[in-house]
Amino acid sequence: MTDDLDEPVAPGGDDPERRPRRQRKQVLLRLDPAVHDALAAWASAELRSTNAQIEFLLRQALSAAGRLP
After folding, report:
1. What pLDDT, in 10s, does the model give residues 14-35?
2. What string of DSSP letters covers 17-66?
3. What is the pLDDT of residue 13?
4. Which of 7, 11, 26, 59 has its CA 20 to 30 A from that of 65?
5. In the chain, what is the straight-line distance between the N-terminal and C-terminal CA atoms, in Å?
6. CA distance 69 to 62
């Protein structure tokens, strides 16, 4: 008899916390300082990082335009 613990587990198995994260692209973005300050304040109010807020807004815009991958 074999023990289930001896079986190799494929990466990204059934456990969603063990799935490998997708690679993320790095983009240099130049912003007007006032726009950055407004984004940072908005992000802080929604408990997000500025980067996460920008990605959130871009995803909303892509979805509204029917272009979300």
Report:
1. 565 676 778 999 999 999 999 9
2. GGSPPPP---------HHHHHHHHHHHHHTT--HHHHHHHHHHHHHHHTT
3. 54
4. 26
5. 46
6. 8
